[in-house]
Write the structure tokens for this entry.
Amino acid sequence: MALERYSTDTVIIGAGVIGLACAREIALSGRSVFVLEAGAHWGEGTSSRNSEVIHAGLYYPPDSLKARFCVEGRDLLYRYAEARNIPCRQTGKWIIASDTRQLAALETIAGRAQACGVPVSLDDGRVLRNALPDVRAVAGLYSPTTGIVDSHGLMLALLTDLEAAGGLVICHAPVSAVTSKVSSGDVLHEVLVGGQAPCILEAGQIVNAAGLEAIDLLDHWQGYPEGGRPEAHFAKGNYFSYVGRHPFSTLVYPVPEPGGLGVHLTLDIAGQARFGPDVEWIEKPEYAVDSDRRTAFANSIARWWPGLDETRLQPAYAGVRPKLGPADSGFHDFLIQGPQVHGLKGAVQLLGIESPGLTASLAIARHVAQLIDT
């Protein structure tokens, strides 16, 4: 029995913050947009399993996409949050050196931040001790433009804008395969949708924003060039919440570690403290938090906060970051492939979109909207 066929201008695969931001941007230009989400609800993957931090843009090489979109996206996100009354707060953050061996790393971060035009101040201890009297550190780098945002509130606002512009999010709609057919210079993308109501969805434009599944989808994409698929790797990050009162009103980060930014202190909008993520390299995504990791968390945190009460650390949640290289393989930028890379008109692949993806989401969406028309 032949499957039903439907058509739209644009298909977005994945309803996380990146997919929703791209869908909103494209729908606001007047196109019809369908967003296909394999799960039961939008935004339940990586987008809702992170620190909810608005990053300033401190860590990335100045010529990288991560640096460009983080700085641009940060400013867009603050303005959007204010305009849409999304819970958000510019908390600032300290990156601290626990001993003199970390001073060089701190200076490197300061240099990168300044090269990217990100305001920071490097302090040798006096200002730091006044700002964070409960913290043990020899020096700190302060970032005034770092903040926090309610990620659910952000995605709900994006969804509202999308639907107001005529777009549609369809859940329980896993994409089984994509076929990109070239005819007279144009490309028609046929999307095979599974689930309870299998169908074929045709579109002239398509965006792969499938997050952790984005690279695997390329194995089922007829017309995508051979050799263009990178290897997928996964870094799990566990989080522990801190029960009760604490002395912090700003974020506190250690010097970064391979694969992540180290076990740091963040705050939610209500002021509750949580610690994480650590870095646990895994073969495939899974989200269980092992309570036995509490001791390792406590030992890491106690190096800079001796007043920590380990018994108040409680397992919270875990997220998984899509990585483009294995452990200790160095810096990997966002991999955004438009038609000029793979030759498929109207198609954009978003691969390895990890931190600072939440911060960069609105800037990435603008870039995708431009690429998709090339």
